[in-house]
Design goal:
alpha/beta; Rossmann fold; two-stranded antiparallel ribbon; 6 helices; 9 strands; globular; binds 5-O-phosphono-beta-D-ribofuranosylamine
Length: about 200
C-alpha cells in the first residue's frame, strides 16, 4: 500500500485530477491520506474536503528545514512515511529543503508546465511563448535538491500556435497535466519506475 500525501498552494486542479483518477480507477494500492497547503483558504483545500481527504494548512514564516520539518511531521502523522509514502507536489509554491528531499528520496514528484529542462522555475508558459518555441508541454519528475531538475518520469507535448496567448497555452498544457500526473502516480504504485542516475526507466 502506498500512502499518498499531496502538497498544494492554490487551485489544486492537479490534486483533483489525481484524486479523481484514484476514485474512478480504484487503484487498490494507493491511499490518499492528507492534503497539506502552504496557504490558508485556497480553492484546493475545499476540493480535497469534497473528496473526504483530511487537510492541513502549514502557513508560517519559518524557512528551509525549519518549515519542512513541520510538513514532514504532518505527513508522518498521517502515515505518509519514507518507507511506504509518495508525496506529490501539485502547484506547491515552495522550494524543498535538502533535508526534506533526502528524507523522501525518490518519493517526491512534481509537475511542471514545460518540457524540462527548458523553462524551469516560475511562468514557464510565458517563457515558452516569449522564446518562440513551437512545442512545449509538461513534465512530471522526481524532486531532487535543485529547481525542477530531478529525474524526469514522463512528459507530454503541446503544440504552440501563432495566436496563442498565455491563457490559451496554459489551458492546453493543464489539460495534458491532468492526464500525465495520475499516470505517473499509477506507474509509481505499480513499482514500475526504476531510477538509474538521471534516467527513469519505466519497466
Ligand atoms: C500547474 O500548472 C503546475 O504545472 C504548476 O503549478 C500549476 C498548479 O495548478 N506546478 P493547480 O494548482 O494544480 O491547478
Amino acid at each position: 500500500m502506498i500512502n499518498l500525501g499531496i502538497l498544494i498552494s492554490g487551485r489544486g486542479s492537479n490534486m483533483e485530477s489525481i484524486l479523481n483518477f484514484l476514485k474512478e480507477n480504484a487503484i487498490a494500492d494507493v491511499c490518499p491520506k492528507i492534503v497539506i497547503s502552504s496557504k490558508p483558504e485556497v480553492e484546493g483545500l475545499k476540493k480535497a474536503t469534497k473528496f473526504g481527504i483530511p487537510t492541513k494548512v502549514v502557513s508560517n514564516n519559518l524557512k528551509g528545514w525549519n518549515y519542512d520539518k513541520e510538513i514532514v511531521n504532518v505527513l508522518q502523522k498521517y502515515e505518509v512515511n519514507p518507507e511506504n509514502g509518495l508525496v506529490c507536489l501539485a502547484g506547491y509554491m515552495r522550494l524543498l529543503s535538502p533535508e526534506f528531499v533526502r528524507t523522501y528520496k525518490m518519493r517526491i514528484m512534481n509537475i511542471h508546465p514545460s518540457l524540462l529542462p527548458s523553462f524551469p522555475g516560475l511562468n514557464s508558459q510565458k517563457k515558452a511563448l516569449d522564446y518562440g518555441v513551437k512545442v512545449t508541454g509538461c513534465s512530471v519528475h522526481f524532486v531532487d535538491e535543485g529547481l525542477d531538475s530531478g529525474p524526469i518520469i514522463a512528459q507530454k507535448h503541446v503544440i504552440v500556435s501563432d495566436n496563442d496567448t498565455y491563457e490559451t497555452l496554459s489551458d492546453r498544457i493543464l489539460e495534458q497535466e491532468h492526464i500525465l500526473y495520475p499516470y505517473c502516480v499509477k506507474l509509481f504504485s505499480e513499482r514500475r519506475l526504476l531510477v538509474e542516475g538521471r534516467k527513469v526507466v519505466i519497466t
